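User: Teach me something about this protein's shape.
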Amino acid sequence: MTESAEPGYEEARAELEQVVARLEAGGLSLEDSLALWERGETLARLCERHLAGARERVETALGEADGGHRDDGSDDG
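Assistant: First, the predicted structure itself:
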């Protein structure tokens, strides 16, 4: 992965777990804690984007599989 490349979901989640563990362990300076918090927020947003994209792909695939007729749960009669 290059520096400019965005990490994949698994990589971002793993790094986020490390960030959380370091913050929970404590013993960091305020500046280091803030930097880690900001990195964690960035990683969390990235994970959300990955999950939203996956959700969209699943919904599209399901829509194609049932001929474009999704059951939205409403009861029209």
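Now, about its shape. The chain has one domain: 9-65. The mean pLDDT is 88. If you'd like, I can walk through any region in more detail.
User: That's plenty for now, thanks!
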